[in-house]
Amino acid sequence: MWKSGWRDTVWSQLDQRRDLIVIGGGITGAGILREAVRAGLRTLLVEAHDFASGTSSRSSKLVHGGLRYLKQGEIGLTLESVRERERLLKEGRGLVGQLGFLMPNFRGDRPPGWVMGLGLTLYDLLALHWSHRHYDADDMRELCPTINERGLLGGYRYFDAQVDDARLVIRVIREAVREGGTALNYARVEKLLRRNSGEVCGVALCDQTTGRTVEARASVVINATGAWADDVRAHVGQPPRLRRLRGSHLVFSARRLPLRRAVTFLHPTDRRPVFAIPWEGVTLFGTTDVDHGRTLENDPVIGDGEVEYLLAALKYAFPGLELDVDDVQATFAGVRPVVDTGKSDPSKESREHVLWNENGLQTVTGRKLTTIRLMAHAPLQAVRARLPGKPPFDPNQRMLTPSPNLSPVEHLADPVIRLRLAGRYGADVTELLAAACPGELAPIGDSAALWAELRWAARAEGVAHLDDLLLRRVRLGLLLPRGGLDCIELIRPVVQPELGWDDEQWAREVEAYARLWERCYSV
To answer: What kind and span of H or E run contains 338?
Structure first.
């Protein structure tokens, strides 16, 4: 699946009529594809860039219940989120894992610590799982020795979960394709096809790698492009309705910002919650919440003011580490869409999802990665009457197919590695292990990624460009200094033959990746 020549095969079949076309290869589009295929629909997913290349690879890597939304009174959203978090923890072991959080309480915090305690109590009650606990200042210092001692009153421990967001998208899409769906990256929608009545009935596509074009038709078209949803809606003459908010993160090596647990606290300037998260061998710190503006690039860039804002918070919470801009290993920024209600504070806009049916184009946007299952079912239920046979959609089915049990064979004796690979690759894991060359089950540098993952991604995961491989399939662009460019000559012999690139193409791809990384992922 997705091996050599797969793109030509898919393009040759795009003129076949489908039941459903999904525009957008992020987490929402992936979930819709998965559930539609499961219901027996002939479904095509198209993505203008790479799978998960938008917001779905630029999140905070959290599968969380939305503790902050309790403050805004969105109890229903929080209830749904905590229950979906528990489902993903059970279904996605090895990919979705429990993450302990510390919430220190400092003198002058607003709201004060006892209010936070009440919020965590409600959070646990909604999840039907009691996990939080209060600690005094001495215990907090023991749990997090680098925390600021000045004004520290104590704090709380609670649990959420984390994930490799891009890997979750890829796994969901591949499971849908394995069961009969079609997914194509680098297929841009140039226009929407419409019947004489004006109803949308398909898409005109352009291959971003070769320039070839084709028209694909279907009974229903769903717009699941997230922050780009207004751009697609413009094809049917609809005005913008979304507010694009940028959330940016700094990435540090675990040596410079060493944490055993995530730490969340209130920013000293505006009292917004921010958090430091250990992830895949590095530490992420974020996030901001600022208006991005109308122009939306595929690779948004952190602003200078955001860097200063985040560093100020780090210096406040971890003064002894003396972190500054030179310690930042990488950055990344994502843009999330919310319905624009004109609130002066972007953080107060609702994260609830919305559904719009305009001239037959069904748009879905909003919410977050945690609620992938709910986000998939909502638009499908909305268009069910227009689909052939009006198929039922079972909301109780699991999103992820159970992973195979890997035996502790000699070359894979470490149970942590076995669980990691099974969770990230699902049914593909046995082929991945068979493809691995001697020594490739070792980690790449200080990251948690393995050399075997690089080989498999290059061979079978629809990579068209080097940034697909290093930023989304295997996250070396965030996990290694300079995005992995310092070890590119070690990466080359593993992946170049699998990709089928000659030396000239390899050189072009490395140069393009280096420019992209320096422009969009460095400070």
So the answer is: strand 330-339
